[in-house]
Amino acid sequence: MSDKNKEFENAVKTMMFHVGEDPTREGLLETPARVQKAYEFMYGGYKEDPKEILNKALFTTSNQEMVLIKDIEFYSTCEHHLLPIIGRVHVAYIPDGKVVGLSKIPRVVNVFARRMQIQEQLTEQIADAINDTIAPKGVAVVIQARHMCMEMRGVEKINSTTTSSALRGLFKTDEKTRAEFFALINSPTGTRY
């Protein structure tokens, strides 16, 4: 075990002790190592570059109509309480000579979601990464999420949803484009093709 892993596991043991647990009891003996592995996954976004992901799958196109990927599920962590944020992201862009492989958009969402976050910043980061890398005519990102820091503690408002948006280019300046985007993301889901 590396010194870094040992330090992390000791910190988990200290935390368990401070909340009133016995880190040496049978059910908790492997917990520090499990938490360390879980954190490596949950915060893997710090090790990835969203622009590199997008640049690997850029393709020339003549399409100039909206591309929308909606209902991208994500899990993040509130940077204020280290509690889960659970929600969906809707991402649209209008190509200007380039499109990106569809799977890359959810991967970019994961890169930023797998960091300690606030929802408002997460929304901006996704929009800016797509805008800066693809250089489309416009980008729109809407996030709808539940925050366990509001549901599990504090005001304890179960099932409350927070919505945030980031609009760039035509989505910000053209009312019809913006209206089309919001109509599409608010249309019923579950349609079979």
Short structural description:
By secondary structure, the chain is of the alpha+beta class.
List SSEs in N-to-C order: HHHEEEEHEHEHEHH
How many domain regions?
Answer: 2
Low-confidence stretches: none
State the major sheet: 5 strands, mixed
Kindly report the spatial arrangement of strands forming the biggest sheet.
5-2-3-6-7
Radius of gyration: 20 Å
Work out the strand percent: 25-35%
Under CATH at level 1, the class of the largest domain stands as Alpha Beta
The total count of helices amounts to 8
Q: What is the CATH homologous superfamily assignment of the largest domain? A: GTP cyclohydrolase I, C-terminal domain/NADPH-dependent 7-cyano-7-deazaguanine reductase, N-terminal domain
| Euclidean distance between termini CA atoms | 51 Å
CATH A-level architecture of the largest domain: 2-Layer Sandwich
Q: Helix/strand/pairing class, anyone?
A: alpha+beta
Shape: elongated
Number of strands: 7
Mean pLDDT: 95
Q: Helical content, roughly? A: 40-55%
Examine the coordinates and then state which fold CATH places here, giving the name of the CATH topology of the largest domain. GTP Cyclohydrolase I, domain 2
Description of the molecule:
By secondary structure, the chain is of the alpha+beta class. It contains eight helices and seven strands, in the order H-H-H-E-E-E-E-H-E-H-E-H-E-H-H. The protein has helices at 3-18, 31-42, 50-55, 104-113, 119-134, 148-151, 170-173, 175-185; strands at 58-60, 67-78, 84-94, 98-100, 116-117, 138-147, 162-169. Helix 1 (3-18) packs across helix 2. The longest helix is centred in the first third of the chain and has 16 residues, at 3-18. The radius of gyration is 20 Å and the shape is elongated. The model has no long low-confidence stretch (mean pLDDT 95).
